[in-house]
Amino acid sequence: MNAVSVVFVLTGVLLNAAAQLLLKAGTQAFAGLGLDRGQPLVSAWRIATEPHIFGGLACYVLSVGVWILVLSRVSVSVAYPMLSIGYVVNAIAAWYLFGEALSMQKLLGIGVIIIGVVLVARS
Description:
The longest helix is centred in the N-terminal third of the chain and has 31 residues, at 3-33. The protein has six helices and no strands. It starts with a helix and ends with a helix. The protein is 84% helix and 0% strand.
C-alpha cells in the first residue's frame, strides 16, 4: 500500500470514527430536545436537525466517498480490515470525551486489533 492509499484509508477511518462520536454526542442532546412521542414528525425533525446528528451523518456521507476511492486503489482484503482502526480511535476518544471506561480487557483487545492491522497491512 503506497502513501496516498494510506492517507485515504486513514481519512475514511477517521471520518467514520468522527461520525460515531458525533452521533453519540447527539444522543446525549436528546434529553434537551424535548422529544414528543405524540408528535413523531416533530421529534424526527428535531433529531435530524440536531447539529451533532447532522454532523455525524455528514461524516458518514464523506466517509463513503473516501472509501470508494480507497477500494479503487487497495484490495478489499487489505482495506476492509483497516476499518478496525476505527474501534481503537473510538474507544480512546469515548474514554476522553464521554468518560467511558477503558478496562484492561478492552486495552488488550485494542492491542490485538493493532497487531492484526499491522499484519494485514504488511501482507
